[in-house]
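User: Some background: our group keeps a shared notebook of sequences we're curious about, and every so often someone picks one and asks for a predicted structure to add to the entry. Today it's my turn. The entry only has the sequence so far, pasted here. Could you supply the structure so I can complete it?
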Amino acid sequence: MPDEENELDRLDPQPQVVKLTTGLQVDIVRMRTRQFFRLLRVLTHGAGPAMMRAGLDFRAGAEQFTAQLLTLVAMSIPDAEQEAISFLQSMCKPHGATDKPDSQLTKAEKEANEALYVQFNKDLFNPELDDTLDLIEAIVTVEAPELQALGKKIQRMMELFRKTGQDKEPPEPEPSPQEMASQGSSPPPSTSSAASTDGPTSTSTTSPSAGSGRSRKQSADAKSATG
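Assistant: Of course. Here's the predicted structure to add to the notebook entry:
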């Protein structure tokens, strides 16, 4: 019978009310996708990864898992300040606020809602430390069973992922015959180097015109000697 009552409470939960030190009362709302992502930001930006490796056991008893998760979230907050505040604000709403579309609110209801949300935004912008811990405890206590069930489901998916070998990198494909043929027909890289231009060149050449000039002079001297 107690288990059936717990199941009914989860299907039709009664809102849990937390009274802040300022006197404002807030309702703890149920976690949905956006709130879950905000919680993940707290855990991944803070001390969460190290503590999860140290032993967040999704198969532990309900009380043990709740205590582990509470410690995990509380220890993650100092390194994830803004993420933690955004998470808390998304998991609460002012107690007593009229939950109807604005078009259906009377003038008095609209004014009352506006006053409640002004106080809510002020108190949750930088809450007292006691209020922060009370809110975290209330949220974790409510959501621990669902988070534990979700963690078990993720673990089963990861185990199946590893068993089927999907966590291993696929081998590199072998080159096709066309690729091997194209690689074999490509010319080898050239190893010749350009001629060095360092230093002056010592080789000299004799101009053909200079040689012909000396021959004509020698012929003229010979004629003058015989004449």
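Suggested note for the entry: The chain has one domain: 2-163. Residues 2-163 form one domain.
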